[in-house]
Design goal:
The structure holds 2 protein chains of 2 kinds. By secondary structure, chain A is of the alpha/beta class. Helices cover about 40% and strands about 15% of the residues of chain A. Chain B has helices spanning about 45-50, 60-75, 90-95, 95-105, 200-205; strands spanning about 10-15, 15-20, 25-30, 35, 75-80, 110-115, 130, 135, 140, 155, 160-165, 170-180, 180-185, 195, 210-215, 220. In chain B, helix 2 packs parallel to helix 4. Chain B is an alpha/beta fold. The chains are: A alpha/beta, B alpha/beta.
Amino acid sequence: MLDTIRPSSTRKRRFPAWLESWFTAQSWKIRPHQLAMLDAFVRRESTLLIAPTGYGKTLAGFLPSIASIHEAKTKGLHTVYVSPLKALTNDIERNLIRPIRDMGLDVTVETRTGDTPSHKRARQRKNPPNILLTTPESLMLMLSYPDAKEIFGSLQCVIIDELHSFAHNKRGDFTALALARLEYLAPKHIRFGLSATVAQPEALAGWLGIADAPARIHQVQETKHPDIRLLETEATLPYAGFMAKYAIPEIYKAITEAGTSIVFVNTRAQAELLFQFLWEANSQNLPIGIYHGSLSKEQRRKTEAMMSAGKLRSVVATSALELGIDWGDVDLVVQVGAPKGVSRLLQRIGRSNHRMEEASKAILVPSNRFEVLECRAAIQAIARGMLDGAPLLPGSQDVVVQYIINCACSEPTKAQDIYQQVISAPAYAYLSRHAFERLFAFAVNGGYVLQNYDRFKRLELTEEGDAYVIASKQAALRHRQNIGTIVEAARLKVKRLNKSGRGPTIGEVEESFAQQLTPGDTFFFAGQVLEFIGVRDMFLECRASPAKDPKIPTYAGGQMPLSTYLADGVREVVHEPRLWTELPDEVQEWLHLQQDYSLLPRPDHLLVEHFPRQKRFHTLVYTFEGRKVNQTLGMLITRRMERMGLRPISFSVTDYALSLVGMRTVSEDQAAMLLSPEILADELEEWIVESPMLKRSFRHVAMITGLTEKRIQGERKTMKQVTFSTDLIYDVLRRHEPNHLLLSVTRADAERELLDISRLAHLLTRYEGKMIFQPLKRASPLAIPIIVDVRREAVHGEGTEDLLAALNTHEEAERMMEDVRDTLA
Amino acid sequence: MTRSLKQTLPVTFAGNDLLLDARGAIFWPSEHTLIVSDLHLEKASFLAQFGAAVPQYDSRDTLQKLQELVAHHRPQRVICLGDSFHDVKAVRRLSADDAALLNGIVASCAEWVWILGNHDPVLDADIPGIAAAHLDIGGIRLCHEPQPDTPNQIIGHYHPKVQMRLQGTRISGRCFLLGESMLIMPAFGSFTGGLDCNDAALNRLSSTPFSRYLLYRQNIWKV
């Protein structure tokens, strides 16, 4: 039931006098939605509260609990608050303890996350606080202990914050199961979800509820549309690239004119580079900070504290800074690089201006001409009030395995009981009993056909023989150390050494980044230029470097997929010259050039360009369907090209187009064959099974189901012996037990996370017979940004073997070749 | 059944003609000898003891591949260059079927030699074939780990792997490393990881750079 309240409404609510006097003392007025939540608690109604940032959502979530605990003088755990970010819970704790202390209430609040020291954790289990602030992983960990029933039995309320940010991914599935367990331990509790504005509130409300009983929705309307504009610039807009270096002077100017600003970028590498550029332009010596997930905890805390205290004028940040934390007086948000989605953009913009009555202010800075189109489409979408959203997908099955083991660590566990808990979560309502049994079998001993059952067991039967428990302390420890769904690539800690050879750890980088460095190379990190010394003991050692231009370019590129709506928006803008008048001059010129030299992509046709370049042949397919779809299409088409003897070498994708590179020309007829929808039937099946995408999925599934370990505590030298690539396991499993559960789960996972098959199918059928083939002598203006993108996906086929063969005959040569920009600019 | 140059590449080492098989083995025609290294049989079951739910098909997979190799080259003698078993108790963990498979392969050759490695310094009495710390043939020493002051040796142990970029494409795979006085074999076992050929441990073994022979998609390439 959708319940929309306008701020001027004046229905009476249950609002204790002592609470009201505190509000009055702050000169605050209680908001209607805060009153509504107080009411919902009394009526025991699980509720999803949807409100824009700055509307007092968090307080709305907690007031009922605070009031209830105080009035009933509750002892023991009353409310669990779950948030996706550790930093958020720290922030909330601060914001809760203040009013509680002001009002002199006997309400205890504590945080528990991965950062909480063990003595504190032990104390929390013995003597739980009234309100526990935690993360999904820490919650699941607490649920794995035998005392879970004692601790959570008294639970009356669960608050889930920033629901929109993780309800539709594996972490959301994980959280859903944790909630299902709480439902089993404390059947009478209710759930409150707090979310930013989303496109499909009903879906979220469903997620929040129990299967067949969605939560009630309370939606607060935004009264003011944000003030968003495209950066006006004197500089020339580049064709390609993701750095927006051209805009630095104007971005800096905007920062100086604002009180406090946040400059959002899409990747960590962009954050580092942009920060450097801004520092070089920082003629007024303003305090500017940098914030992203790879910085050390200490660095991040320092920046957070400075922000809260108003000591920073601006912070360059990735999405790590996106969620909830109250940064005080931010009055400007600068989004550098295309936003990739309307909802995400709105959430970022929502960071600016927490005062409800004033409009948030934001500036969009496109990195290149293509991004201008996307930014424009986003501004239009916001003006029209249209939101995009990721669909809620069925729950991922690997998480269920972890859940089963988690339960078995806590108490003797019967399959049928766990099954009931799992399917009570709406995300898993689809799961059949049979499928569940297979998952259970896997949890017990791997479920392999060829197996010596007595040799390996994770779970074993109790003496009574009717339930399972964890088989050993070791297995329990191993499980607890690997709880969670976030699978990170292997990382090295970065240590900046001073002259004495010692120094602080300033953050982490992926192992793959370290592997490309040789001693003496310089690179950006944590806002400084560093010189690589070497890797020792899982540490990347470096020292400060006076160099200005680091040797290693950290590549910058948006990793997020383009939402459907924006893709359509961009397609629309490109196609209609009368819509170009609002675009910067060079973008208009670029599009005109495209119109003259080649063709403009039309909404009802699929434009395919083909041209030679540096002894190779490029085929450009302008789908405007987003990175995921283009990636899948790229893999399928290159397989077909292989079959047809066209010798593909590589392909690269952007959100707008797919660029294929091969050793042979492609004719119009051949192109039509490559794009036929049958590709989904024949090729997809074969390709999926062999694709590297699937291996990547398998890697994640392997870690989440406990097949391999994410982290091996304290083992360094022996790491090589104990771990080896999951790719090898995948190959062997495929050969010897192709129907194994892990492979089918991997397949389902890959289809859901990576492939976007249905969107691709829609694309191919829509354009069947409607391809426009445009052979050209050289790259078109529209193609340039795409072909200069250095990140290419290799095709492991004869094309690659040709390259190897060339090496064979030219033994001296082992060249690295970089794509060079054409000089049309 | 002939194999193309891409599948079996001839090289000369210490004055002997050898064939490097893309499946990760050496065939020595004049000696009718097949050499493989680092099978690490029963590695998965070893890990299982520590709670890893790893599928235990690695021995079968490895043995099936070995069987194919033997059937193709029909050597009179097979030499396994060490770390054939992941640990000293490994052979006891072989399933009945896999043990039968192993025995069958060994029985099909006139001579079978297990060079001892660091993982299997002792050979279980149940294993058919003979054990040796090293073997000297045709002026070449065959052993598991490098020995000092030895002019020409073929060794295993390092599981070398190549990772390279070729015109923007990333290629990686197991490899042979061929030097003036040392030839290092890739690991044959299905669950064996690899050591990057640029690693300091490998650079120390030769004063001149190794030639690299990459195993990629059923073929072998000099890179």
